[in-house]
Prior knowledge:
Layout: H1 3-22, H2 25-35, H3 49-55, H4 63-80, H5 88-106, H6 134-149, H7 157-193, E1 199-204, E2 211-217, E3 221-228, E4 238-242, H8 254-264, E5 268-273, E6 276-286, E7 297-302, H9 323-334
Antiparallel strand pairs: 1-2, 2-3, 3-4, 5-6, 6-7
Helix pairs in contact: 1-2, 1-5, 1-6, 1-7, 2-5, 3-8, 4-5, 6-7
Amino acid sequence: MDTLTHIVVGACIGEIIAGKQLGKKALVLGALANSIPDVDFIAAFWMPVTKDLLAHRGFTHSLLFAILFTPLLAFLSEKLFRRQGIATKTWLLFWGIQLFAHLFIDLFNAYGTGLFEPFSHFRVSFNTMFVADPMFSIWPGIAVIILLILKVSNNKRMVLAWSALALCSIYLLSGIGFKFLIDNAVTKDFNNRKMVINRYFTTPTPLNNLLWYIVAQNDSGYYIGYRSVFDRQDTIDYHYARRNESLLALTDKQEDINRLLRFSQGYYTVENWHDTLTFNDLRFGEIIGWAEPHPKVAFHYFLQYPEGNKMVVQRGRFAKWDKKILQSFINRIKGI
Length: 336
């Protein structure tokens, strides 16, 4: 998830576990604790983009990292906050829950989390929530603002923090339920139309869990479409994107290609944009794909110009959004 989400969720967890002993410092320490796995962003300063894509949510997002660093951070915290008299088991609980909560939340979007690094490069992604979803983050965000204002002695602090996390959990569960409905509709449509599909995935479109993006793979490419939880018609409209893997032979950037193939989990297309060979990772969605036929993909990597690939994961995600596009997005969520 985005950084702000980890900060506010971590602050609420901090209040629940250590608020009585640390006061409002628990909010700050909790926000820091839940953000620690994202320390891997530092790799971007010296790694090429294709290496950084795999480094992010790699070892620092693994079960091994959480297991190793929980006792270490608990030991350091006990030394730093000796005067507060917080028991070792409380510190172990504090850091363990924070680190595992970060990993747990990240599992639900499309990027993929390396839970089993360094023993396996397999990445886990449940595809039930967009990487930044205000309806998930707003509740702990509001709670943290109120907690910063309320006096430490106010007995409503614990209730507020628990309520915020409960609402987050309900929203998380709603995404799982919606995915079940969408996947059922998608597979039913495949069967009714006798479409030959090797595999597929569904994932929410930006900032919501009501309109879903569908990518279905066959031998030569992908059927790409959208479905809202409010859609009434059974059939789904698709456009087709060819994989064009043969175009990869036109470049000598084999190391970059191998990393991109691994990162994309095989959901990719290759295109020539004028004089530029472009690798598209389909998992991150299209730019206003519900409104335009054959739109560009949000993740597009310029193979011949590696220096031009900053912010590659969400490049141009909201570039075309204006009042008209926003209205079309809302209308599409309402269903057809």
